[in-house]
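Figure S4 source data
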Amino acid sequence: MKIITLGEIMLRLSPEGFKRFVQVDSFDAIWGGGEANVAVSCANYGHDAWFVSKLPKHEIGQAAVNALRRYGVHTDHIVRGGDRVGIYYCETGASMRPSKVIYDRAHSAIAEADASDFDFDAIMEGADWFHWSGITPAISDKAAELTRLACEAAKRHGVTVSVDLNFRKKLWTSEKAQSVMRPLMQYVDVCIGNEEDAELCLGFKPDADVEGGNTDAEGYKGIFAAMAAEFGFKYVASTLRESFSASHNGWKGMIYDGKDFYVSKRYDINPIVDRVGGGDSFSGGLIHGLLTMPSMADALEFAVAASALKQTINGDFNLVSAEEVKALAGGAANGRVQR
């Protein structure tokens, strides 16, 4: 299957282990970013995954391209130009201390890209799926316009479109997010987002108090139905994270197809190695599942297992095979050495 993603790949700079920013004199360099992470997951599952973006012509831009190529992602539609690669700093939390992210991504190449940089009809030709996230239109008005044009081209070519709502309060306000995101929902077939994303991006609030520990999945059924009714989504899906500490989370997922509401098995992730990219790995797993599996229940179980595994891996990318995910989804969770 041919899968297209559009977004920004960034250089992630992280202190070693669990050190704080102020403790270190050097950082580990890792590549990642919402839609790039999804593309890597899909490539790992055997799909033809393409990442669309703009990166500078210099060596740092090339390093980002190389990172994607290393894992089998097609980079032919990455335009070269602009002045800088976006950067974010990530400090890994532990126990009651949360992880922390600081952005340095203003005026990145993709944030300042023009519509004339891309031929979205050519990009969408022969594609089966197009995925984007709410991070991309949040980085700039130009990027929001690129997202709209890409969605329109996908619809012209009969491509299934998915979105991970992915609200980022450091990039825009809820009011701005809703003014941009709600009109874009007309192009979306599969909507992915947790309770905060649904409220801040689209104005829907589930009947669940996650912060207070009330994580009954049934509280989401009504809001999923309302979202599907208003925007015509074929599927609405979400992860549900129970955050006991930065190192210990409960994890499961839900999906709704306009008729049936399904809740996955629950995983107890303890200790978490790196939660960054957990939602992206869920999106990548769900895309693979909906394209290749007989039911939405099977697709959801694959996605939740994939994203649980991601949180045991350092870095943004989910470096697991479909076979490893299926083994976990099938019950192989004891972590014994595979010989």
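Figure S5 source data
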Amino acid sequence: MSLMAVSGQMAAAQAVKQGPADRLTIGGYGEAVMSYNMYSDNFGIYSSPADYADSKGHGRFDIPHAVIMLGYDFGRGWSLGMEVEFEHGGVEAAVERENEEAGEFEKEIERGGEVALEQFWIQKSFMPELNVRAGHIVVPVGLTNNYHLPTQYFTVYRPEGENTIIPCTWHETGISLWGQAGDWRYEVQMIAGLNSTLFSTAGWVHDGSASPYEFKPANELAGAFRIDNYSVKGLRLGLSGYVGDSFHNDITTNTSDQYKGVTGTVMIGAFDFEYKTGGFIARGNLDYGHLGDIEYVNRRNSSQNHTTSSPYAHSLVGEAAMAAGVEMGYDFFSLSDRLSADGMKFYLFGRYEYYDSYIPAEGTTPNDWTDKHRIAVGVNYYPLPEIAIKAEYSHRFLKTPYNPEPSVSIGIVWAAYFKH
């Protein structure tokens, strides 16, 4: 789970500290990555794969995430948490709809990337078994959303399957009830629903939590939950899910008779686990999602405003999507008393995952390029518990006639408290 979630649990369990400075928690995490993709980055690689079979690769430098976290314990069970995230170096961009100009969309972009207020909540802790959190919160559906720090997975980038088909890190405004009793932890949320006009072939509902406006449309509400069990030493088992309507959750509600009663209900179920013993770690996930009223969602998305400044995806959406993956790693420094005593770790790891962001409705034309298998092998070196240097080789396998997509990546990551 995130540092901010850990901080929230600490605030719930600790007595009131003395002095304002002692009540402040500061932390964060981040990644800097260099990658070389040994395949073409042309937009036509899936529409005309034969034209790019022998294309040269392309290199990238990236800062996927740089996050600052702040927490404050007000006392008497009240606490504050916030998290500001800079993705890919920040952004200077906005989309607005000009009503006085026939509803045209205007967009200005000066720098790529994203800046997001990923968490901003007030919490009241009554007891370890009952805490109430309200504000902008992380939706803990799937393995990666609940455990998204770069020191909580082996690959250089976040696990690809979940990061493709559902929002990641998924954050919404709403209210959450959570608590822990014995070997069980639970969380139940009421949050703003997704927006079906932003769904796509390549990402299923991934972009549906976003809003290009200065507010988030909330015509539809949704529910999410997570349950974790720790009964077996070293093993955590997690079950999570989401359900909510998405069809009328845009800036404008479509009142056409053909769309009356259409809900576009999104349902997602996910199972995940983590097992640690000695120097060995294994993690895995299985996610499956279904989108209702798919014929109407696709009909409406294809008829949305198609101006170049429109924020809509204009993309066919699959009736379902899925992602499954497992990774295993072993810390070879655990075999040395001297190295393990210094807190250093050196993991050799492997990962396999399968995902498909577009499982079409019956009778709909398939897009076979969304059906992907991926393997990754590499190392994680921890000179300190808070810092890791990662390196990996990965290979995506696509169906014929699409070309394979191998790559190599190197990254340095960190996740730590500066003060707590």
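Residues 98-102 have pLDDT under 50 and may be disordered. The first helix runs from residue 3 to 13.
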